[in-house]
Amino acid sequence: MSDDDVQELVARGALRSVEPDPDAARRELTTAKQHIESSRAVADSDQTAALALAYEAARKAIAAHMRANGLRFGGRQGAHARMGEYGLAVFDDARLAEHFHAFDRVRQIRNRSQYDAFSVEDADVEYALEQAEAIVAAVEADLS
Amino acid sequence: MLARVYLEPDRPAPLAELASELGLDRAGVKREADRLEDAGLVVSDRVGRQRLLRPNPDSLYYDDLYGLLLKAFGPAAVIGPALRNIRGIEHAYLYGSWAARYTGEPGSAPADVDVLLVGSPDRGEVYRAARELTEVLRREVNPIIVSRSRWEDAEEGFIRDVKASPLLELGPDGGVTRAP
Description:
The structure holds 2 protein chains of 2 kinds.
Chain A: H1 3-11, E1 15-17, H2 22-42, H3 47-68, E2 71-73, H4 79-90, H5 94-115, H6 122-143
Antiparallel strand pairs in A: 1-2
Chain B: H1 2-7, H2 15-22, H3 26-38, E1 42-47, E2 50-55, H4 62-73, H5 75-83, E3 89-95, H6 96-102, E4 112-119, H7 123-137, E5 140-146, H8 148-153, H9 157-164, E6 168-170, E7 176-178
Parallel strand pairs in B: 4-5
Antiparallel strand pairs in B: 1-2, 3-4, 3-6, 6-7
Helix pairs in contact in B: 2-3, 4-5, 5-7
């Protein structure tokens, strides 16, 4: 984790410090893992729901990381849109960076599928699950 | 230089910055700016001591010149070739606001470039290419991937909307053709 990057985000007002809550973070991470299981369970029958669950798993894992480290988004800009940016800032690892970039793509597909009469394909679900699993694993490893 | 001024009017740059961006010497850029302004193709705005160039939409040649520069140097010229080597892409299309510009609909330079890919390419490979293109074009490149059956079926609201709007096929050589 790169403290400098986080401090910069705090200084910019993009993040603000709050009391760390490791118990809530653990619960949120457990929920994220359940979402992955649920996503896999419906992947063949309901791709839109499976993609939304995979996205939600990754989002909750990032949120859990923030909670454990006593960080919240500041300002008015949408928190969902900045989750990937947070991941890129705190996980200083090129391989993981791919997954945090991808998180934002999954978010866009999920948004389209929710509001745009847009179908989700098996390959989209597979891609979303791959990112969610990597992000959940990275957060779990960092918090343990 | 003319392409930079015409295709990125939302990002007017001082002459010195244009020179470094385009790898030209400052005196040459100034001479070219004077010539283009004398010809009525661009106009200058002064901000402090800086001179910023913007296209002159009142020029008799503006519409034709913009169309020509767009075809030669617009996003399609870069996107088509960048996608050429990704396996599984059967067709690549430009849709949305940029497609509208290519087909002559007037308006400002759109922020996002909407690209639709038909086929079954590797998602990761496409999104990585889109990220690189975003850096090159300094505009968000948003690729949507749809399978051939989904595209041909056209039952889906999103696909019906795309097909009913300006749609251009992106060629691997950087050219564009109007989709049937």
